[in-house]
Amino acid sequence: MADKGIPKRVKFLFGGSAGMLATCFVQPLDVVKNRLQLSGEGGAPRLYNSSFDAIRAIHVKEGLNGLFAGLSAGLLRQATYTTTRLGIYTSLLERVRARFVSLLF
């Protein structure tokens, strides 16, 4: 019996899940980065002295949810873009390998 490998829908699911999980870990760092970049813009005083100060201040003022602001948009992007990109990539990679590996060996 020939092994057909992982079904395409599972590849798409794994790709999207990986992207969404990565977004959940990176989102707080992205929020801090954006806040630091905008702090002091236009002649306003700087709000944060360091990344750790920004994390503390955001947590105190907005709670833990403040560090995950914008997460829904990031997850939506990953659910659509990354799912499609990684799913298509793995499918195409298998086709190329199947075609060209047989030519090499």
From TrEMBL:
Its main location: membrane. The keyword Transmembrane helix applies. InterPro entries: MCP_dom_sf, MCP_transmembrane, Mito_Metabolite_Transporter. It is found in: Membrane. PROSITE patterns: SOLCAR. Gene3D superfamilies: Mitochondrial carrier domain. One of its GO terms (cellular component) is membrane. It is a multi-pass membrane protein. Keywords: Membrane, Repeat, Transmembrane, Transmembrane helix, Transport. SUPFAM superfamilies: Mitochondrial carrier (SSF103506). Solcar repeats lie at residues 10-95. Belongs to the mitochondrial carrier (TC 2.A.29) family. This is Mitochondrial 2-oxoglutarate/malate carrier protein-like. It comes from Lingula anatina (Brachiopod). The gene is LOC106159368.
